[in-house]
Amino acid sequence: MELTFIGTGYVGLVSGVCFSEIGNQVTCVDKDLDxxxxxxxxxxxxxxxxxxxxxxxxxxxxHLKFTADLATxxxxxxxxxxxxxxxxxxxxxxxxxxxxxxxxxxxxxMNGYKIVVTKSxxxxxxxxxxxxxxxxxxxxxxxxxxxxxxLREGSAVKDTLRPDRIIIGTSSERAAATLTExxxxxxDEIMVxxxxxxxxxxxxxxAFLATKISFINEIANICEKVGADVTHVAQGMGYDKRIGxxxxxxxxxxxxxxxxxxxxxxxxxxGNVDYEFKLLKSVVExxxxxxxxxxxxxxxxxxxxxxxxxxxxxxxxxPNTDDVREAPALDIxxxxxxxxxxxxxxxxxxxxNFRRFFRNESDVQWCDxxxxxxxxxxxxxxxxxxxxxxxxxxxxxxGVMKQPILIDGRNVYSKEQLADTNFQxxxxxxxxxxxxxxxRNSVASD
Length: 446
Ligand SMILES: NC(=O)C1=CN([C@@H]2O[C@H](COP(=O)(O)OP(=O)(O)OC[C@H]3O[C@@H](n4cnc5c(N)ncnc54)[C@H](O)[C@@H]3O)[C@@H](O)[C@H]2O)C=CC1
Ligand SMILES: O=C(O)[C@H]1O[C@H](OP(=O)(O)OP(=O)(O)OC[C@H]2O[C@@H](n3ccc(=O)[nH]c3=O)[C@H](O)[C@@H]2O)[C@H](O)[C@@H](O)[C@@H]1O
Hints:
Elements: E1 2-6, H1 10-21, E2 25-29, H2 33-40, H3 51-60, E3 64-67, H4 70-76, E4 79-82, H5 97-109, E5 114-118, H6 126-137, E6 142-146, H7 156-161, E7 166-169, H8 173-183, E8 190-193, H9 195-226, H10 230-238, H11 259-272, H12 278-290, H13 293-302, E9 309-313, H14 328-338, E10 342-346, H15 351-355, E11 364-366, H16 370-374, E12 379-382, H17 387-390, H18 394-400, E13 405-408, H19 415-418, E14 424-426, H20 431-435, H21 438-445
Parallel strand pairs: 1-2, 1-4, 2-3, 4-5, 5-6, 7-8, 9-10, 9-12, 10-11, 12-13, 13-14
Helix pairs in contact: 1-3, 4-5, 5-6, 9-11, 9-12
């Protein structure tokens, strides 16, 4: 089948590459000419394991093309996928400007029957709006379908080629049959529903996952006060199939381009129909507070931050991505600078993207390795659970720091790894591990 994906962000690019991999003729379109030129040179604009290889293979075989010519690619396509961004407006609502622009561009380019699929995350009712825009501008027949995207950054290729489920929201039997056929090579779990339910499934799924994270973070905060270990609590809860073990990892809260944006948007969607989504509002509030636990732990261990050197390991919002959108590291570093600390920072791949947030580049010392970051630090904070940090030799780390204060924002280190070190060790919701530290006990009793 001939497919066009409009927008070459995570969703458009990864989907385009994966659908070419399973035998379709794919064109990926972007209005950003520089990005298209880079893609045509074989450069992958995002860090995503496995993507480069598949992209090279399918461009070489002629199954995959990149262009800025939206009109021609729409005309050649059987199915057109809208994959442009829907960032937050100041109100929290989704900005639909890009989606509506693309709907107009598709309408003006159409030359016959098309299936128009929205993969962007859009509020309930948006696909009806897209239908209205196209039917006002084009005399040609078309069907509108909502197929929300559930891929995760860092495992996007795997998630796209082996999804848990595909949701097809449409009132057209013809479109439902074509799209079921298209997705069959990926999974048997294909659900056909109406458009508005499909739109809501996407927001409800992200909001539920965000709720699990804020829930376990609050349990972790209580564990710290009552002497329980949140990792054991999560494990014990997870054996119950009704609860499940995923998304119960306590830490510094969720970030990224989607959970923060989509939780705010769903609160607004509810608000627009006079419903106060109290639970989700609390999920957001808990998440906003959670990152500042790192600051409280630093204040507890260092006292005043003025003139102290604090190392940061991890800037991306999670491992295996160079995406720094809404990364908790940003708020944490800004607060440290405000409190007078000297900040050294390192991420295996996201440093370049992260530096753009700082007008004055010299505010932070950007380092090239984990050990260089730790050298001469009064405290070190692990904010992203990259495997490189998990595998570090803590005894060697202990030796290079000025003061052995280690704040593990992702609970990556074990009792065994901490043995034979004198770290004053803090983590999230594991008070027993913290009390093992001899240095901390001596500080506490000073
Ligand atoms: N990033 C992710 O992991 C996921 C994102 N989503 C949703 O998918 C949507 C897209 O997200 P990302 O892929 O992160 O997008 P992104 O914001 O990284 O990229 C969007 C791309 O669309 C292009 N674009 C904008 N207007 C255009 C136009 N008129 N014509 C051609 N190209 C145009 C931009 O130049 C940009 O390259 C959002 O609604 C997001 O919520 C859903 C699941 C996962
Ligand atoms: O709509 C989207 O864009 C996507 O949003 C998330 O994917 P993503 O943001 O790539 O990353 P996740 O793996 O979900 O992690 C999000 C954040 O939650 C945090 N997290 C995750 C899991 C956990 O147990 N604890 C926790 O703190 C991560 O560190 C990260 O900051 C969803 O998992 C995808 O299904 C969805 O398609």
